[in-house]
Amino acid sequence: MDQGQLLKVLKDVADQALTPAAAAGKLGNDSFEELDYAKIDTTRAQRTGYPEVIYGSGKSAKQIVGIVKAMKDSQKSILATRVEQSKADEVLKELPFLKYDAVSQTLTLKDKERVEVGNIAIVTAGTSDIKVAEEAAVTAEIFGNQVTRIYDVGVAGIHRLFAKLDVIRQANVVIVIAGMEGALTSVVGGLVDHPVIAVPTSIGYGSNLGGMTPLLTMLNSCSSGISVVNIDNGFGAAYNASMINRLISEEHI
Amino acid sequence: MDQGQLLKVLKDVADQALTPAAAAGKLGNDSFEELDYAKIDTTRAQRTGYPEVIYGSGKSAKQIVGIVKAMKDSQKSILATRVEQSKADEVLKELPFLKYDAVSQTLTLKDKERVEVGNIAIVTAGTSDIKVAEEAAVTAEIFGNQVTRIYDVGVAGIHRLFAKLDVIRQANVVIVIAGMEGALTSVVGGLVDHPVIAVPTSIGYGSNLGGMTPLLTMLNSCSSGISVVNIDNGFGAAYNASMINRLISEEHI
Amino acid sequence: MDQGQLLKVLKDVADQALTPAAAAGKLGNDSFEELDYAKIDTTRAQRTGYPEVIYGSGKSAKQIVGIVKAMKDSQKSILATRVEQSKADEVLKELPFLKYDAVSQTLTLKDKERVEVGNIAIVTAGTSDIKVAEEAAVTAEIFGNQVTRIYDVGVAGIHRLFAKLDVIRQANVVIVIAGMEGALTSVVGGLVDHPVIAVPTSIGYGSNLGGMTPLLTMLNSCSSGISVVNIDNGFGAAYNASMINRLISEEHI
Amino acid sequence: MDQGQLLKVLKDVADQALTPAAAAGKLGNDSFEELDYAKIDTTRAQRTGYPEVIYGSGKSAKQIVGIVKAMKDSQKSILATRVEQSKADEVLKELPFLKYDAVSQTLTLKDKERVEVGNIAIVTAGTSDIKVAEEAAVTAEIFGNQVTRIYDVGVAGIHRLFAKLDVIRQANVVIVIAGMEGALTSVVGGLVDHPVIAVPTSIGYGSNLGGMTPLLTMLNSCSSGISVVNIDNGFGAAYNASMINRLISEEHI
Amino acid sequence: MDQGQLLKVLKDVADQALTPAAAAGKLGNDSFEELDYAKIDTTRAQRTGYPEVIYGSGKSAKQIVGIVKAMKDSQKSILATRVEQSKADEVLKELPFLKYDAVSQTLTLKDKERVEVGNIAIVTAGTSDIKVAEEAAVTAEIFGNQVTRIYDVGVAGIHRLFAKLDVIRQANVVIVIAGMEGALTSVVGGLVDHPVIAVPTSIGYGSNLGGMTPLLTMLNSCSSGISVVNIDNGFGAAYNASMINRLISEEHI
Amino acid sequence: MDQGQLLKVLKDVADQALTPAAAAGKLGNDSFEELDYAKIDTTRAQRTGYPEVIYGSGKSAKQIVGIVKAMKDSQKSILATRVEQSKADEVLKELPFLKYDAVSQTLTLKDKERVEVGNIAIVTAGTSDIKVAEEAAVTAEIFGNQVTRIYDVGVAGIHRLFAKLDVIRQANVVIVIAGMEGALTSVVGGLVDHPVIAVPTSIGYGSNLGGMTPLLTMLNSCSSGISVVNIDNGFGAAYNASMINRLISEEHI
Amino acid sequence: MDQGQLLKVLKDVADQALTPAAAAGKLGNDSFEELDYAKIDTTRAQRTGYPEVIYGSGKSAKQIVGIVKAMKDSQKSILATRVEQSKADEVLKELPFLKYDAVSQTLTLKDKERVEVGNIAIVTAGTSDIKVAEEAAVTAEIFGNQVTRIYDVGVAGIHRLFAKLDVIRQANVVIVIAGMEGALTSVVGGLVDHPVIAVPTSIGYGSNLGGMTPLLTMLNSCSSGISVVNIDNGFGAAYNASMINRLISEEHI
Amino acid sequence: MDQGQLLKVLKDVADQALTPAAAAGKLGNDSFEELDYAKIDTTRAQRTGYPEVIYGSGKSAKQIVGIVKAMKDSQKSILATRVEQSKADEVLKELPFLKYDAVSQTLTLKDKERVEVGNIAIVTAGTSDIKVAEEAAVTAEIFGNQVTRIYDVGVAGIHRLFAKLDVIRQANVVIVIAGMEGALTSVVGGLVDHPVIAVPTSIGYGSNLGGMTPLLTMLNSCSSGISVVNIDNGFGAAYNASMINRLISEEHI
């Protein structure tokens, strides 16, 4: 809002053409609930269509419980990622309505009224990438997307990928998850004409460098249409894919 | 296609239920034209909706001319990126129907019948990022997207960004281009609820490390909904954005 | 002191115009107490206004006890950082007058006569950065500064920062503590006109690279007026901020 | 400003207790002038006491001329850094009132009425660091600070530093500029009790790594009270030092 | 297969000159068995002469058991690498016909009818590299190669290497395994005229950087005829060496 | 040769059972010719089957001429790599019997009597990798190998690779040359069962990091049977491939 | 030895002018004792004046016992470094004549007849560097050098260093051990005119990068006369210093 | 000097037992001559036996002339390193008594009365390392050492090294200079029992990383007795070697 627009709004208020509350709406009414250790963005779900998400790593079970309670009034679905088994057990004692999934390390509460739309394909190179893939899958599902899982189709046996190509091509968005050298991304990127989101994983040894090698591979891909998120960041990929998928699907409805 | 499906197709051919040509279509009929120094993917535009693009860097003017000629029959629009002024001059002598733009360093032929759809916002942090931004803008336009340019709104004077926020929020996809430390991406990512594609640039000095610093910044963004392409890769960002924008817009039509 | 000045002092001694003790003062009378494992700088508090500080990491409880005892005659306040709970317990058995704080991992003895002056704002991006923030806060308080804590105002929900901007702007110095990509620093730097000291934290995953990513972000900030200390170094930031704050405040008195 | 405060202001406007213009002031009236290639922050000098500064690198002479003209109405002093000789020559033809300094590569217009206050010491390890030091010195002077230059006192001949220690200790802030291994910073940091701002330079060869080595050295300094800015960033150090120096000095007046 | 060849095959099927099954063979009949967590390449042993190998790291004992069972029908020899003692114990309870070797951390089933051919020399610089060397040795043996072990002949006592040179020179392929600085590779490379495959190990400390130092050393070797595999990748080196050795040896038969 | 063997040889000489010359042969008769600036290994061609090769970079035209002259008596074929056009022109004035190739930047003299054996396939991802590929091709040919060139078959259009797969599979050894992200290597490695030698190139921009990205990709390949040489090192790959190819082919003769 | 010299020796043997044993001496009589897991260089002590040393890390207690037993006949003093307490306990049960030191983590047997000569000064920046310093000290003493320890004299309190300067200057060689930023090395290097050997330590946090920062600092030192060994490599520094010290001292005798 | 000693000296002056001048000597009489751009350490040659040296890089011809003139009264020999041909030409016009050497890029004035003592061997791996080697050689000679050059004996043809081993072993100190992977250092270190100083060079390509690869190789050497200086730092190695060589040789006289 530029200076002119601001003065216009304020003049409207002075002229009683606008109530203070309506003006507040125009001037930005983002709000938050303040805990000791966090400021929770309570109007986020209405504003963006996405629930505020809890990044569990580095938070105590007690803090997670507190945040979930504060959130529960303003959002119908809840997602906490990176929650280890032992921490989850503590949280579940207090909040038995949450569901814990040990592979993806997520705690969720699903909004059952939400309609699942469109389709996101989640493709992994190997069996070891499944943990990250499931973080993506659970996230995408909680955000109301249909998910198709295609696991263990890395380029060392590329015929396995080709056998699944039709399924992959039907998705609105494709998430490709790979460790080692991450070459699967470029191959998929060259074969589909929908957006591909690449997730490097820290799977591998030696010069994999904790995932930096597939990260660099993916950023330098000779195939167009690929963008990249952080190492092991299944959540981030799914959030992105969900935005794109829902925009496409909802226009359709 | 799995073994069963393959046998099915072949049996249909044996049973004359399918002509060899139709079967070839099902079994993948990707083709290419072979030059001495390149293999041009001539059916690409029909297949994916995107013309094959020439990455000009490291190719001679003569090679570019040869490739454009080979492409011209099969695609209506042509885009060559990373073409320096002197090389472009040589190409234009042979192919005067191309248009050269010195800021974005692109040679283009535009398909005038193509309808521009949707809207992509291209946002830069500084004046020095404009070169990369224009590579993105020209690419997006040649691929049939409407483009809105919002330049020089970096976080050192964040009120300039807020003054343009409404315009940015109207786009289907936002491309954020920033050098130095790249913080603009996270701020935009926290304020819009459409997909954000981040392009780090090599603008800066010292520990900018040729763009690695904003690249890492963008990958680690605390805002969700951001994905990243390679350093200075305006083309890649626009290709990605175009895929998303056209999927959203075309569903709508 | 150059050669001429040195000769002048020595001639004054020869001429009895100066006593040896006074000359010793002019020629540098820094002294230290020698333990087996350390050389304690006992005149530091008088000289610089700051107590010598114990960096607890890598020292045994026994060594910490020894050093505190050696210090106690010459300084009124004591600060030991990076002391884990178990080590602290051992120390407290011997030195019950110290106070342990488990979040900041500090052992302190406060000089109650010291007047707190000025104001240092400590701002964090997330909840996970609080540990480093508290090391800074405790350090600043032991050095006689007023401290204002503003936690969890990262740029993913930038309205939380704006809501606190007035408080931040009232401080003489602002410490900004952020992990992930560290973009908060640039935003704060663009909004306040007092010195900003940035502390990158090792909070994040994948390409955060143990804090190197926010460190690089902060060093490359497009906002002016920002300087940076080492990763997770809350103590260093507070020491710095204290120097600046007290110089400003004391001139005022 | 939180929701409550916002409503309060707007109610005051509705109640005619506040004029729209006065409310606009409270709600943030930052403004800028829009050029084709830049958005100039014209109220910056009034707001922060510092003129907007032009980072010359990557801008054409023509763009610099345009920006200076746009600035000239709103600010009395002008500073452009990183301007090479040839570019400066072009600018000076259009704007002969500017002054060019070839060592620091700055174009300046000095506000002669501004009173110089306090004192900033600029210390270099070697002769080769002088270029960065002069960028810092010119910047500090244009911002109204007294500057003392102490060059070539690196630790290879540490007696040269001790000979200048009294002068250094009289400054409110010390800027230490060093390439090679950057050890001078720690030594100075251990000897003065005012804030030290360290600037690593890209001077050196081999494993200096373009300044990354002294940058890391300075960040890891065992002396307290040191903060660091980007490699070769004389401007940034001076901006920082100026903020601190003026706050100290002005309180005094 | 190009478009023309594809049509040719399909026409032959249409003309009954080729059965669908035979055509499927020509068009690629790679197949796989699908488990929940893996897709096993069951025709691999026939196709390439090498059994599919299980990379044990990151797989559960249960998953390994499942995969071995699925493999057992289609391949006579089995190799699982990177299996820790405790995991191996679990597997052996279910599959007592496998053999576990604690140094190389491998589980194997050997095809007793396979004839061992040729000779691969495995040379280590130190005693600490033996673990990686044994992974290579077991792999090479399971693939039907004769193996000669020459351990602890690093360049610090180069006469130990010369004493073994005749034995090394008799091998078809030489695998050199070294940590620390990896110089042994260059020395061996300069003394033998058969292919040398270098394996850097993560043995060393400080600036060994987890094996990156010997990796770089080996890639930059001034001796010709050396190629390199990943850090600690004894399996990869042996696979490579086996391919070469068997090609040489089998031609001979 | 151990101490016992050494004494045995010497006793035989003492006993006249062995002539001094024969003993010299057993004790190693490597020799070299000493120039001012180089020590040329003149018996190398007889010993290893490979001519000594001149690495032209950093040598003057005069030095290259001197070395070629010194070599010419002892070897029938000559190869100098990394010779720029201007340097080559100077050399050719003195040594008109050499042949210069501008793409591969090599000077060669071919031994026409040498029989070309076997087959090495040289595969590139893009047109820009051809320079490195030709260094490999010329080297392989001078060493007596048949070479098949398959250029521009990168994974962005993977059908181009499949169209050439039969040709690639017929080679004894495959050299894969790729810049950008280097994914082609893994795909080829998964499709052929002969040794693959990977050459990363410095083609690409931004986070390609001068070839470090494809280098890391190739080292971490999930396909087995791949080994790697240094960035842009076409010569090294060809030397390696030649060793393997000739060993296989010669056994056959 | 060149070809001519070799023939000369062999002719002398043939002519009975030289016995085979004497010739063997001239041709190199290095020998070793072969264990399963190691090749021990048994004539090393006589040849170089230094006992073969056991690098304990990665060796089992049993292997260490075996190696010590094999060594004991040929060398009077024994040194094993990097031996943890628990492993040492096991070794001492078998070999009670060894002495274990828990700080330096060494097992030693001292040759009591060896005369200690010269003087090596070992200087540390902090208390935390003492562990590395003691590895150096024990090594130097076992090799027959006098050692002077000067600990905790880092540049944060540089007067502590000056107080000890006379002692440091009396040593033939100075070992400087520092973590954090390692600046102490440059200061000492500028003040003494005997060789300085620098040892970076992994003491520090954040951007210390496991010792890479002080390593780079030391390599880039602006003071002359400094050379560097690997991170935490107290043994290597002492070995080096001992070579120099003994050469100086012994010439004197 | 500690507090007690300081008081003792000053009391002696007060008691007239010591003249002020004599006391000044005891208290440190380091002095320097101050130019505009440098502070020249004029008593250095007397104090340390080594002339102050001019690092030419980054200094203008005019500055070099000024420094040489200022030095000439206090030192008999002069050395300027890193002086390019064109700059040298300018200097020589003013100072024709200096001698320029184009390979080592040094300007020198030799003290003809200085006796050359001892012997330093300078060994290079390749022809391309000679430039760095000559910087070392000229430096060592100007400092009064005998120098033996052994060039182009890299490990790719290790027999060339063995042929020169006797000469190398006769030196007091050995400087080993190598680029590429730097393996020569470890080999020499394992064969000589005098101190070895390693100089990595930036010779090589691809993953040589500007000399970082041989630098890391040398630091991680498995041979003892090696220390390392900065990349391409021939001067530093020679300064170091000279210190050691002269200490050994002079004791002998």
Description:
The structure is a homooctamer of 253-residue chains. The first copy, chain A, has helices at residues 3-14, 20-26, 44-48, 61-72, 85-94, 130-142, 159-163, 165-169, 184-191, 212-219, 234-252, and strands at residues 33-34, 39-40, 54-55, 78-81, 99-101, 106-109, 117-124, 145-150, 173-178, 196-200, 226-228. Chain A has 253 residues and is an alpha/beta fold. Chain A has a five-stranded parallel sheet, sandwiched between helices. In chain A, helix 6 (130-142) links the parallel strand 7 and strand 8. In chain A, helix 4 packs across helix 5 and helix 6 (130-142) runs parallel beside helix 11. Chain A is globular and about 70 Å long.
Keywords:
253 residues, alpha/beta, Rossmann fold, globular
Compact description:
The structure is a homooctamer of 253-residue chains. Chain A is of the alpha/beta class.
Topology overview:
The structure is a homooctamer of 253-residue chains.
Chain A: H1 3-14, H2 20-26, E1 33-34, E2 39-40, H3 44-48, E3 54-55, H4 61-72, E4 78-81, H5 85-94, E5 99-101, E6 106-109, E7 117-124, H6 130-142, E8 145-150, H7 159-163, H8 165-169, E9 173-178, H9 184-191, E10 196-200, H10 212-219, E11 226-228, H11 234-252
Parallel strand pairs in A: 3-4, 7-8, 7-9, 9-10, 10-11
Antiparallel strand pairs in A: 1-2, 4-6, 5-6
Helix pairs in contact in A: 4-5, 6-11
